[in-house]
Design goal:
Elements: H1 2-21, H2 39-53, H3 59-72, H4 78-104, H5 121-136, H6 151-156, H7 164-169, H8 175-200, H9 211-217, H10 222-268, H11 276-299
Helix pairs in contact: 1-2, 1-5, 2-4, 2-5, 3-4, 3-8, 4-8
Length: about 300
């Protein structure tokens, strides 16, 4: 986790530096050739890529080697875990150097309205610091087979006491087997780097129309699926609720009450005619109505 913090932070900040340099562009197919514009970012990003690929003596080598060694010696499925770890190491080296070659090498493929430039010191100084840590950070975990004493392991040993059950699952390996694991892991990482160089050393942006390429080009069609399953049904539901519930229901009741009050007030105000004879007539009519009501109730 310590070495991961160094080179992963370096790669993220390096990506931000590149995006800043090309005015917010995030499609690497529209970059290329940035090496001549961004010397500091280029060098630090290269260090981050080598570190995450796990090449000796960069920090990622020591952490990757230790992880692969532990999964190999742990439990009955150690060899299966090792193969999966090696495959992950190959893919990591491949896709990171694909990013590196496409972004920094070849010809610049951005528009003429963009003018790539190196980022200011506020961004490059942290890159340099993280690059140095990515380069030498692994020294805190040099294994005994290389003449070290794994300072980090001894520092954390008081709080990382292994349980008896866990110890029983771990099998010891010889120094020869450990050297072989280191060598194989390094060769696999170099294979990933060479594969990326072979396929992307002269990259030219172009769109492919094959089914598999289109599938990945459109990000597994996750956005389209989300739009069809979630967005469009919710939009239809919201339009229905707006039309039926809000406008015909809630607005209909509220506006209906307002119209009723307005209509009844328009009619009632006609009683205020200002004619004395009409008022006397209403008084007499009201008295007669009250007498009728009283007689009606007295009858029942």
């Amino acid at each position: 986790m310590v070495t991961h913090a160094f080179f992963k932070a370096l790669l993220f900040l390096g990506s931000g530096s590149v995006i800043h340099a090309v005015d917010g562009e995030q499609d690497i197919r529209k970059m290329g050739g940035l090496k001549k514009y961004m010397k500091t970012t280029y060098l630090t990003f290269l260090i981050g890529c080598i570190a995450i690929a796990g090449i000796f003596p960069f920090s990622g080598f020591f952490s990757k080697d230790e992880i692969l060694l532990h999964v190999f010696t742990h439990g009955n499925f150690g060899k299966v875990y090792l193969i999966l770890g090696m495959l992950a190491a190959l893919m990591t080296a491949y896709y990171m150097f694909r990013l590196f070659w496409v972004t920094f090498h070849g010809q610049y493929r951005g528009g003429h309205d963009k003018h790539p430039h190196e980022s200011p010191a506020l961004m490059t100084i942290p890159l340099v610091v993280l690059a140095i840590l990515s380069l030498i950070g692994g020294l805190i975990g040099i294994p005994e087979i290389m003449g070290g004493n794994h300072a980090l392991h001894h520092f954390l040993s008081p709080v990382l006491i292994r349980s008896t059950a866990s110890q029983a699952m771990v099998h010891e390996v010889s120094h020869t087997a450990e050297w072989i694991l280191m060598g194989v892991a390094t060769v696999i990482a170099l294979m990933g780097i060479l594969m990326a160089w072979f396929y992307f050393k002269s990259y030219q942006s172009q769109k492919t129309n094959t089914g598999v390429s289109r599938f990945f080009e459109n990000k597994w069609y996750i956005d389209e699926m989300y739009d069809g399953v979630i967005v469009k049904p919710l939009q239809s539901l919201s339009r229905w609720t707006e039309k039926i519930i809000e406008k015909s229901g809630i607005d209909g009741v509220v506006n209906g009450v307002g119209r009723l009050i307005q209509y009844s007030s328009n009619k009632l105000r006609l009683l205020q005619s200002g004619l004395v004879g009409f008022y006397l007539f209403m008084i007499v009519a009201g008295m007669i109505l009250l007498f009728v009501i009283q007689i009606w109730f007295n009858k029942f």
